[in-house]
């Protein structure tokens, strides 16, 4: 039906929302988007290049408390001090955070979608009461230990073990590439037991637990990444997550975090497009802004399509999730498609910036290298491609 009869007139589309996705947002969703966007631009953006160059977040506990006041930790969870928002609202928050930097979205995602979701979904009532309100407030930090040095895409081959010793559990093993590991107060550690894979709440001051920081990263530098070493870590019987049995438990948490990536990389892509538009409009060569040249305009058109198709994909998956209709392969579709789109946009934006694009004065190279990590963690591109093909063929290529 045409809008002509009611007097509506089309307006010139905005580059960041060319297809009008924001028109489908509720008032509450817009308010959450704007609150996180304003916080990110005022409190994070002025510092993130410096943090990236330094290879750390200088004061993560104060940052955690600020995120807690903002209400983004575990915002999609209900009760225990959590905001209880819908999935689209959480996605919008991830989009705004990753528009600043992937490491900052990861900071929030690991706390809320991995550590807090594991406790919320699989913990006892006592565990939930003990940990979740303080984690939602940013007073306590968590991490999530699944990946190992020799068990990345195949977490079922993990070597970390938990054995019974009387009424206690004793954990031995190593986890790798753990965001917030060295600053966490509690680690959710997944280990092999005689009864299968189980999850454990490990206070990080427990004897035998250590979390050395991983240095010399060239990507996701505004983030703290650690190894977890468990050397005879003794835990009481009630440290186990009673509802988590088998590999499906940690994988379901990863699916929650992966959903945030679907939105987050759309934010990184948007930031690169906006930077490229500003730069191309002001950079003059041959007496003309480079935005006037056909080759540059083609690059801008390609970026425009990628950015807005990524947003559409995230939005549709979010609405499916809120309706209870999101299959795990929908989220694989989103990560597979949106990360690749964001990588194309970041690389093209870097090229438009020329030599200036490799400096931290502009955000494009920072996003470009961050996306290399995002492409790898929580399911590589190849793993998600095989997941999608298995869904539509009914044939698994994994085993």
TrEMBL record:
Any single GO BP term: fatty acid beta-oxidation using acyl-CoA dehydrogenase
Region (Disordered): 1-20
Domain Acyl-CoA dehydrogenase/oxidase N-terminal residue range list: 26-139
Substrates-to-products reaction catalysed: glutaryl-CoA + oxidized [electron-transfer flavoprotein] + 2 H(+) = (2E)-butenoyl-CoA + reduced [electron-transfer flavoprotein] + CO2
Family matches, as Pfam families: Acyl-CoA_dh_1, Acyl-CoA_dh_M, Acyl-CoA_dh_N
Domain of life: Bacteria
Any one GO molecular-function label of the UniProt entry: glutaryl-CoA dehydrogenase activity
Domain Acyl-CoA oxidase/dehydrogenase middle: 143-233
Pathway(s) per entry: Amino-acid metabolism; tryptophan metabolism; Amino-acid metabolism; lysine degradation
Domain Acyl-CoA dehydrogenase/oxidase C-terminal: 245-392
Cofactor: FAD
Keywords assigned by UniProt, alphabetized: FAD, Flavoprotein, Oxidoreductase, Transit peptide
Record-listed E.C. numbers: 1.3.8.6
Enzyme class: oxidoreductase
Family: Belongs to the acyl-CoA dehydrogenase family.
Protein's name according to its UniProt entry: glutaryl-CoA dehydrogenase (ETF)
Organism: Thermopolyspora flexuosa
